[in-house]
Amino acid sequence: MPAPILRLALPSPLRRLFDYQAPESIPPGRLQPGVRLRVPFGRRDVVGVLVEVRTHSDVPPDKLREALSLLDREPPLPQSLFDLCLWTSHYYQHSLGDTFSWALPVLLRQGEPATAREQRYWHLAPDARADDPRLERAPRQREALKAIAQHPHGVPQALLGKLQLNRASLEGLIEKGLLRTEQRRSPPQPHHGSWLLEPPLPLNAQQRAAVEAVSAGFGGFHASLLAGVTGSGKTEVYLQLIHAVLEAGRQALVLIPEINLGPQTLARFERRFNARIVVLHSALSDRERLDAWLAARDGEADIVIGTRSALFTPLKRPGLIIVDEEHDGSYKQQEGLRYQARDLAVVRARLEGLPILLGSATPALESLHNAHTGRYALLRLDQRAGVARPPRFLRLDVKSRPLDAGLSAPLLQAMTQTLQAGQQVLVFLNRRGFAPTLLCHDCGWLSQCPRCDARMTLHQRHNELRCHHCGHAERPPTNCPQCRHVDLRPVGAGTERAEERLRTLLPDYPVLRIDRDSTARKGALDRLLDTVNRGEPCVLLGTQMLAKGHHFPRVTLVAILDADGGLFSGDFRASERMAQLIVQVAGRAGRAEEPGRVIIQTHLADHPLLVQLTEQGYFAFAEQALAERRAAGLPPFSHLALLRAEAHRPGQAEEFLELACQAAEKLIDENAAGGVELLGPVPSPMERRAGRYRAQLLFQSQARTPLHRLLGAWLPRIEQLPGARSVRWSLDIDPSDL
Ligand code: ADP
Ligand code: ZN
Ligand code: ZN
C-alpha cells in the first residue's frame, strides 16, 4: 500500500493546501486532522496543520516531499476551534495556514509541545524517615527532609528558594537515597469553596431582566446586545451571569478592547470571584501566553479575559462569551488576517452552541441593525445604576470666537468655576503633540512629511517634527527650508500645547496630561491616575486614552475641544465614531453624586447629527444615522470588500488594480454575480504613506453570497496578474476604514 498523502495548511499567504508524503515511521492511526507536523518548505522547515489524509496526490511522485516529524499525539485545537479557523479562512478569503498562525500561540506555531510545562519535583523516597540515623550529624539535611515531607505531592523546583532549602542538603539527601526527583507537569489547582468573594449587588429591574434573558439561553446559541448607558451597571450584569456560568461548572470568555481596560476590569473580577482567572494581554511572554492558553483549553482556568486574539482561545467547558464595548475599533484587526473579533465571537458561539452577550453604551450601528432584524435580542439599561445621574450636554458654538490653544473664553470660564467649586475637569483633545503643523509665515511652507501625504506634528518637548503615520522624525528647522526666513509658527493645538497654555491660564491647579507620549514610561499612567483619584481639583487633559474604562468620580465637567472632524470626513463611519467617542468621554463625568456637564466646542452647532446626539442621546442619533445609511445603501444595508494595493512607483498600484478590476468585471459578466458593484480604482485617502503610493478598489453588494462567490473566483486570478508580486496588496472583507 502506498504511503498516505497528507494535505497540510502551511504558514504561507498562498490560499491552498500542500501535499506531503507521510513518513513510514508514523503509525497511520496517529495522523488525525488537526495535528501539527514539521515539513520541509522551500529551503526551510515549517510547522503545518494536517487538514486531510488522502490516498493520492496531483503532485507528481518525484516532486512530493516527505513530512519530517509529527508534533502532537492529539490535535492541539479542539474540533470547534478548528472549524472556526476554517470558517474564518473562508469568510475572510485568507490562507488557512496563515489563519492557524494567527489563532495559535507563537510557541505552538514554532512547534513547542501543546502540553502544560513540566518541572522538576522533589519528594521523599518511599521509606525515608526523619529519624534516619544517618541524619543525626546532618541537621540541615534533616530539616530539609522534614520540610519536604510536608508536601505529599512533592516540592516543585520553583518553590525551593521560598522554602529556604539549599542545594547541598538536597544533594546529600539524594545521595543517601532518601530523596528523589521527578520531571512532571504541575498538578491542576482544583477550585475550592464558594465562587464568590463578595456578595453581588441587588439588581435593578432592567439589570435583572437582562440577566434572566441571557441565562434563559444557557446551553444553546443565543446572541444578545446589552445596550446600556455608561454607568448603567453592565459590568454587574456580566459578573452575575459569569457567576451562574461558574455554578454550572462552565468557563466564561470575556473579550475587552485593547486600550488600558486591563487592570481596572481585572481588579473587579478578582474582587468578586474565587476563581482561576487568566488574562491574555500583550505584555505576556510567549511562554506565559501558552501556559494561559493551555489552562483555558484544559479547563484549569474558569474565566478567560483577553483582547481581540483571545477569541481563539479554546475552552474545555465553554459556557458564555461576553464582548465588552463591542463597538470598539480594536476588535478589528488591521493587518494580515483582517478579522472582526466581535463578529467571529458570534460565529464561535454558534459553532459551540453558546450564549453570547455583546455590551456597549454606544453599540455599533451593525449591532443595532442586527438587534432590529431579530438576530440579536436587544436588552437595554436606560438608567445609571446607583446615585449617578446622566450628564447634560451643551454645544458651544465657536464660530468666529478666538481660540487660545484650542480653548474658547466661555469654556475657560466654566472650567474655572468647576475648579473653584473643588471639582475636577476633563479636557478631551484627540491630537497628540504640540501643534499639528509648522508653518512659514512668510512663504507658506508647511512641515510636510517627506514620505507621506501628511503634515508632521511638532513635539516641542522633544524638539522634533514627527509624522504620526510613518514614524519619520526630524529636528524642526530654525529657518524656513524654502525662503530662509525665521518666522516659523506652530499652527493649531495638540495636547502638549493645550497643557502648556492651561498651566499658564490656571496656575493654581495641577494640569495632568494623559496621552501616548506622557504615559510611555512604565508606571507613568498609574501615577497620573493616582493623583486624579486623590480627588483634589485638577484638569485632566488627554486623548482617547481617557475615553475608555476609567471612572473619575470627581470629574463634573467634560470639555470636548474639537468634535468637527467626525462631521465632515470622507469616511462614512466617521460620524458614528465621533458620536461614540463623545458619549464615551462624556460617560466619565459625574459618575458619583455630582451631576456632570459636557461642553462640546464646535463650528457646526446646528449639525443635525450633533443636535440629535446631544439632545436625545446616542440611540436617537443611531436611528438617524442608520436611516442615512439605508438611504445611501451603505453598510449594514450592504456589504463591502476593499482591495488595497501599494507600490514604490506612482501609478503602479492603480495599474495593478485596473487589471484586477477588469478581471472582476469579466467574472461578473460571465456568471452574473448579480448586484455586485465595483467602485474605483481610486487613490487612497492618503495616497502616499511611508514612501509608498496607495490605491484601492471597493466592492459593494446588497447580498453577501454573490459578493463572496465573486471574490472566491477572482482571487486566484489576481494572484496570477503580472503585477501581483511587485505590488503589495491585501483584501479586507467588511473594512472598517475606507
Ligand atoms: P457600566 O459597566 O455600565 O459602565 P458599571 O457596572 O461599572 O456600569 O456600574 C457603574 C456603577 O454602578 C458601579 O460603581 C457599580 O458598582 C454601580 N452599580 C451597578 N449596578 C448596581 C446596582 N444594581 N445597585 C447599585 N449600584 C450598582
Ligand atoms: Zn518660508
Ligand atoms: Zn510620514
TrEMBL record:
Domain Helicase ATP-binding: residue ranges: 215-381
Q: Which GO molecular function, any one, fits this protein according to its record? A: hydrolase activity
The record's top EC class is isomerase
What EC numbers are recorded for this enzyme? 5.6.2.4
Q: Which InterPro entries match?
A: DEAD/DEAH_box_helicase_dom (IPR011545), Helicase_ATP-bd (IPR014001), Helicase_C-like (IPR001650), P-loop_NTPase (IPR027417), PriA (IPR005259), PriA_3primeBD (IPR041222), PriA_3primeBD_sf (IPR042115), PriA_C (IPR041236)
Indicate the segments forming the Helicase C-terminal domain, all copies. Answer: 457-632
Summarize where Zn(2+) 1 binds, as residue positions.
C440, C443, C480, C483
Q: Indicate which residues the UniProt annotation says bind Zn(2+) 2.
A: C449, C452, C467, C470
Cofactor binding description? Binds 2 zinc ions per subunit.
State the reactions this protein catalyses: Couples ATP hydrolysis with the unwinding of duplex DNA by translocating in the 3'-5' direction; ATP + H2O = ADP + phosphate + H(+)
Keyword annotations:
ATP-binding, DNA replication, DNA-binding, Helicase, Hydrolase, Isomerase, Metal-binding, Nucleotide-binding, Primosome, Zinc
The transmembrane residues are none
Q: Name the coenzymes or cofactors required.
A: Zn(2+)
The UniProt entry, under Pfam families, shows: DEAD, Helicase_C, PriA_3primeBD, PriA_C, Zn_ribbon_PriA
Do you know which HAMAP family this protein is assigned to? PriA
> What quaternary arrangement does the UniProt entry report?
Component of the replication restart primosome.
Family of this protein: Belongs to the helicase family. PriA subfamily.
**Described function:** Initiates the restart of stalled replication forks, which reloads the replicative helicase on sites other than the origin of replication. Recognizes and binds to abandoned replication forks and remodels them to uncover a helicase loading site. Promotes assembly of the primosome at these replication forks.
Question: What name does the UniProt record give this protein?
Answer: Replication restart protein PriA
